[in-house]
Specification:
Chain lengths: ~625, ~110
C-alpha cells in the first residue's frame, strides 16, 4: 500500500462504526468481531504504510520530508479554497502504529473485560469511532480536518468516560473532562482562525513555510502559538487543566488505556510536535512549553505517592509522562518526545489493562483492599511489574531509552536537568508502592483475595504482547534497526529527517539516572515491604505536606470555589441582565407600549352610527376646505 | 330635449347649484339627526339626488352636446335603487335580530 493511500486507514474503523450502529444489535455478539476485524485491517494497513515509508527513506535518504495527498473540498473562486488531505511523515508513522496497535489490543482485551455489559455493542461502536477520529487526526494535513477530528476524539472520550451512565460520578467526570478540554479547544479554534486570516490557508505545512518566510506578523504569530498551546494543554491535561484526567478514570479501564494513556491525551504532544517550527519562531515559545511540562511532571509525581486508587496512581503517572513529553518538546527535542510517546503508549496501556485485570478479578480498585495478588494472577503481576519498571526508567526497558533521550536533551539546561532528576526517584517510589501494595504482601481484604483469579486468555494475551513491546520497544533507538530495515539511522532519523539525529548515549547520564531510579525503588521496597510503618510515620512527620497532597493541592477545591462564586456569580448577573434588560425591556417593552397605546386608542370606537357619520362629514368638509385654500 | 335645454338656460346655473346644495345639506342633516335607520336611508337618497341634479346642471351648461351628465344621472339612480334595496334588507335583518331600528341602540361594534 502506498503512503498516499493512507486515508483508507481511518475509513476502516469508521465503516465498522457505521455498521455497528446500524445493524450491530441484530448481529451475533453485537458485532464486536466487525470492530476487531476493521481494527486489525487498519493495523495491517498501517504496517504497509510503514513499509512504504521505509522504502522511500532508503531511496531518498534524509531529504525525504513525507508525502501529501489531498483533494479539493471547497472552492469559491477568488474567495476561498480549502483542500482536504493527508500528510504522512515520521510523526504520522509513529502515531499510526501506536493508535492502530493499542486500539486493537484494547478491543481484544475488552472482549473479556466488557463481557456481559448492558451497552456492549455501543461500547464497541464508540471505540471504533474513536479510532477512526484519532487516525484521521494524525493523518490530517490541514488545521480544519485536525480541528474537527480533535473535537470528535473529545466527544468519544466524553461518551466513554460516561459509559457507566447510571453512576453519578461517571456522569460528572465525563462532563468535567469535556468542559475542561473545551476551554483549551476554544484557544485552538481561535489560533486556527488567526493563522487562516494571516496566510489564507489551513494547510499546516504551508502555514509553517509562511511563518518561516516571515509572512505572519509577529504579534499574530505569538498569539496564535499561545492559543494553539492552550488547545494542546487542555487535550494533554497539562497544568492547570490536568484536573480532568484523574477523574476520567471513572470510565471502563480499557477506555483509560486507549484514550487516557496511549492516544487521545498525546494528541496535544502530537500537535505541538507537528507545529514546533511555529513555537521556535516565537520568543519564549519553547520556554512556555518547557515550563508547563515541568510543572505538570513535578506536581503529578508527588500526587502519585498518596493516591490509594490503583487507576488514579497510574493516571497521575500518565500526567507525569505527558509533562515529560512537553519538557522534551520545549527543549527542542521532538524526536525524544515522540520516542517517549511511542514507548509510553505501550507500557502505560499495559499498566491500565493490568489494573483492569485486577479490578475484573477482585472488583476492588483501592490498594487498601488488595495485596498478595502476584500468586493468584502471575501474568498480570509480571506485566505490571515490567510496566512499573519501564515507567520508572530501569535500563533496557522501553521507558528507559526514552527518558534517557530527554535527560540528554536537558543536559545543557541545569535547572531543568536538576528538576527532572528530582522526579526520577519519586516516580520510581510511587510505581514501586502501587506494585507492592497490589501484588505483594498479605491480602488486606480476604473476600476480594479469595475471589481473585487470573483473567481469561483474551485479556492476558494483549498484556503479554504489550509486555514484549515494553521490553524490546526501546531498541528502535539503535541505528542498526534502521539499517536492518534498509535506511540509515534509528527512529530519530525516521521521525525528524531535517536534522539527522543520532542516539545520544551519555554514560554519566545513564549511570546517574539509573542510580536515582534504583534508589527510589529501594526506598519503596524498604518503606512498603521491610518496614511497613514508614509511610504512616512519614505522613505524620510531614502532615501539612501530606494533607496538601491528599487534597491534590486543593486545585479542585479552588476551581470549585471559582465556579461557585465567580463563574456562577457572573452568570447570575448576566441572567439578571438578560431577564430584566434584554427580555423585559428590549423584547416585552415595545410589545407592552403598543398594547398600552392601543388600550388608550380603542375608546374612540363608540359603535354609534351617528358618531361615525359625523366624523366622515367633518372629514369631507375639512378636506374640501383644505383643497379650496390650496387652490385659492 | 332641445326645448328643455333652452328653458334651463334661461335660469342661471347658480340656482341649480344652490338647490342641490340645499338638498344635500338636508340629507346630511337627516343622516346626522335621525335615529331611525329607515329615515337615515331616505336622507342618503336625498344626498344622491342632490348629486344627480348637480351632474345634469353642469352637463347642460358646459357640454350640452355630449350626454355625460345624463349618463351619470342614470347611473346614480340605478345605484340608489340597488342601495335602497340592500340597505332596507340590512335594516330588516337588524330589526329581526335586535328588535329595533334605532341606530343609537345598535352599538355593539365598539371596544
Amino acid at each position: 500500500m502506498n503512503m498516499t493511500d493512507a486515508w483508507i486507514i481511518p475509513l476502516l474503523p469508521a465503516g465498522a462504526f457505521v455498521l455497528l450502529l446500524l445493524v450491530g444489535a441484530y448481529l451475533p455478539r453485537k458485532g464486536d468481531f466487525i470492530a476487531i476485524a476493521a481494527m486489525a485491517a487498519a493495523f495491517v494497513a498501517a504496517l504497509l504504510v510503514v513499509a512504504d515509508f521505509t522504502d522511500a527513506l532508503a531511496e531518498h535518504g534524509a531529504e525525504f520530508a513525507g508525502v501529501s495527498n489531498s483533494i479539493e473540498w471547497i472552492d469559491i473562486p477568488d474567495v476561498l479554497h480549502i483542500d482536504l488531505g493527508i500528510h504522512v511523515d515520521g510523526i504520522t508513522i509513529v502515531m499510526l502504529v501506536v493508535v492502530t496497535f493499542v486500539a486493537l489490543m484494547v478491543q481484544v482485551y475488552s472482549l473479556g473485560y466488557m463481557h456481559g455489559d448492558s451497552r456492549y455493542g455501543w461500547f464497541y461502536a464508540i471505540l471504533s469511532f474513536f479510532a477512526a477520529s484519532m487516525l484521521a487526526l494524525v493523518l490530517a494535513d490541514n488545521f480544519l480536518l485536525l480541528y474537527f477530528t480533535w473535537e470528535l476524539v473529545g466527544l468519544c472520550s466524553y461518551l466513554l468516560i460516561g459509559h457507566y451512565n447510571h453512576l453519578r460520578s461517571a456522569a460528572e467526570a465525563s462532563k468535567k473532562a469535556f468542559i475542561t478540554t473545551r476551554i483549551g479547544d476554544v484557544g485552538l479554534l481561535i489560533a486556527i482562525i488567526l493563522l487562516f486570516k494571516a496566510t489564507g490557508t489551513f494547510n499546516i505545512q504551508e502555514i509553517i513555510h509562511a511563518a518561516e518566510a516571515g509572512e505572519i506578523r509577529s504579534e499574530v504569530l505569538t498569539a496564535s502559538v499561545v492559543l494553539l498551546f492552550l488547545g494542546a494543554m487542555g487535550k494533554s491535561a497539562q497544568f492547570p487543566f490536568h484536573v480532568w484526567l484523574p477523574d476520567a478514570m471513572e470510565g471502563p479501564t480499557p477506555v483509560s488505556a486507549l484514550i487516557h494513556a496511549a492516544t487521545m491525551v498525546v494528541a496535544g504532544v502530537y500537535l505541538v510536535a507537528r507545529t514546533l517550527p511555529l513555537f521556535e519562531l516565537v520568543e519564549g515559545g519553547p520556554e512556555l512549553v518547557l515550563a508547563v511540562g515541568l510543572m505538570t511532571t513535578f506536581i503529578s509525581a508527588l500526587l502519585g505517592l498518596v493516591m490509594t486508587d490503583i487507576k488514579r496512581v497510574i493516571a497521575y503517572s500518565t500526567l507525569n509522562s505527558l509533562g515529560l513529553m512537553f519538557v522534551a518538546l520545549g527543549l527542542g527535542a521532538p524526536g525524544a518526545a515522540m520516542l517517549y510517546l511511542f514507548a509510553h503508549a505501550f507500557f502505560k496501556a499495559m499498566l491500565f489493562l493490568d489494573a483492569g485485570s485486577v479490578i475484573h478479578a477482585t472488583e476492588a480498585q483501592e490498594v487498601d483492599k488488595l495485596g498478595g495478588l502476584l500468586r493468584k494472577m502471575p501474568i498480570t503481576g509480571v506485566t505490571f511489574a515490567l510496566g512499573a519498571l519501564s515507567m520508572a526508567g530501569v535500563p533496557v526497558l522501553a521507558g528507559f531509552w526514552a527518558k534517557d533521550e530527554i535527560l540528554v536533551a536537558a543536559l545543557d539546561n541545569h535547572a531543568v536537568f536538576a528538576l527532572l532528576c528530582l522526579t526520577l526517584p519519586v516516580t520510581a517510589l510511587y510505581m514501586a508502592r502501587v506494585f507492592i501494595l497490589t501484588f505483594l504482601g498479605t491480602p488486606k481484604d480476604e473476600h476480594a483475595f479469595e475471589h481473585a483469579h487470573e483473567s481469561p486468555p483474551l485479556m492476558t494475551a494483549p498484556l503479554v504482547l504489550l509486555g514484549i513491546l515494553t521490553v524490546v520497544g526501546g531498541f528502535v533507538v539503535f541505528d542498526g534497526l534502521g539499517e536492518l530495515m534498509g535506511f540509515p539511522g534509528g527512529i530519530g532519523q525516521v521521525i525528524f529527517l531535517h536534522e539527522p539525529h543520532e542516539l545520544h548515549l551519555d554514560w554519566n547520564v545513564i549511570l546517574g539516572s539509573s542510580a536515582l531510579v534504583i534508589a527510589g525503588l529501594v526506598a519503596g521496597w524498604y518503606a512498603y515491604v521491610v518496614r511497613p510503618s514508614v509511610p504512616a510515620m512519614a505522613a505524620r512527620a510531614l502532615a501539612p505536606i501530606h494533607r496538601l497532597l491528599v487534597n491534590k493541592y486543593y486545585i479542585d477545591d479552588i476551581y470549585q470555589y471559582l465556579i461557585d462564586h465567580v463563574v456562577l456569580g457572573v452568570a447570575r448577573l448576566l441572567s439578571w441582565f438578560d431577564r430584566n434588560v434584554v427580555n423585559d425591556t428590549g423584547i416585552n417593552g415595545p410589545a407592552e407600549t403598543t398594547n398600552g397605546l392601543a388600550y388608550l386608542a380603542k375608546f374612540q370606537q363608540t359603535g354609534k352610527l351617528p358618531n361615525y357619520a359625523l366624523a366622515m362629514i367633518v372629514g369631507v368638509v375639512a378636506l374640501a376646505l383644505v383643497a379650496f385654500s390650496l387652490k385659492g | 330635449m332641445e326645448e328643455a335645454r333652452s328653458v334651463a338656460q334661461q335660469i342661471p346655473l347658480e340656482h341649480f347649484l344652490v338647490l342641490s346644495a340645499i338638498l344635500f345639506s338636508l340629507g346630511v342633516y337627516g343622516v346626522l339627526t335621525r335615529r331611525n335607520a329607515v329615515l337615515i336611508i331616505m336622507s342618503v337618497e336625498l344626498m344622491l339626488n342632490a348629486a344627480a341634479i348637480n351632474m345634469i346642471a353642469f352637463a347642460a351648461y358646459t357640454a350640452p352636446d355630449r350626454f355625460i351628465g345624463m349618463i351619470f344621472a342614470i347611473f346614480i339612480i340605478t345605484i340608489a335603487a340597488a342601495e335602497a334595496g340592500l340597505a332596507l334588507a340590512i335594516v330588516l335583518r337588524l330589526f329581526r335580530n335586535q328588535g329595533t331600528a334605532n341606530v343609537d341602540e345598535v352599538d355593539e361594534l365598539k371596544w
